[in-house]
Amino acid sequence: MHIHTCLSPCGDWEMSPKKIIRKSLEKKLDIIGICDHNTAENVEAVIKAGDGKDIRVVPGMEICSKEEVHVLSVFETTKQALLMQEYIYGNLPGKNSPEMFGHQIIADEKDEAVGENQRLLIGATTLRLKEIVDKIHSLNGLCIASHVDRPVFGIINQLGFIPPDLPLDGVEISWRMEPSHAMKQMPDIKRFPFIVSSDAHFPDDIGKAITKFFIVEPTIDEIRLALTGKYDRRVEV
Fold this sequence. Notes:
By secondary structure, this protein is an alpha/beta fold.
């Protein structure tokens, strides 16, 4: 549920649409989430690269709040993701420096470069965390706090706690820490369902950590039911 493409400045060029699909199929993944930093411009290319193959590509973004907290937003449709992108772009200052942060390549489904994003995608938005979560929910998306176990950009490290009024749909634990250890170290996350993800920036990272969703079909509504444990849907890590 957390894969970066070559559009993320810290993502390798090998993370092109076709190569992401190829590696995901090799790892026998059924659902992948494309969540580049503060953008969704490569989502449709990955979806098209996966057309006709036994995989569901979920459109999303990894957004950085004003507090420098990373959150995953995932949606049912590309249209919803692009509406979120429009909101983020309107509140994302700065211009990228490729020499400092890396190139931000926009690719098509044939793995051809079609442009380069000039925004400072690695930067923080001017939006507070609560504003971002509320906007995601207004577009019927899911909002999951990214890699809560990490010493940078995780909500626990940045804020010291998870605000009691923040309506997260879940938290993500990275491959770096066992969930049982994470819950002992950060008891605040016990209030939320959690997933584990690879946060892949390189092809070999894809599938490093996976979450199993016991659902009827690969939709956001079904994933939402799994996260809440309703109607026999569930999550297993």
